[in-house]
Amino acid sequence: xxxxxxxxxxxxxxxxxxxxxxxxxxxxxxxxxxxxxxxxxxxxxxxxxxxxxxxxxxxxxxxxxxxxxxxxx
Length: 73
What we know:
The chain is of the alpha+beta class.
């Protein structure tokens, strides 16, 4: 089971999913209309390490975080 967390302004509860890689997560989230605007611009971290490939293998207990761009001042 993988935990998916949505950080910053993404107003969505965490998910627990049986997925093998980030490509599977992307397919699930693309079907969620409220997530679509965030998918193109968000960074992704697996176990607190930023990743750029969707082919990274996920294991039971892994934590995936979607990090949207934010502005500060």
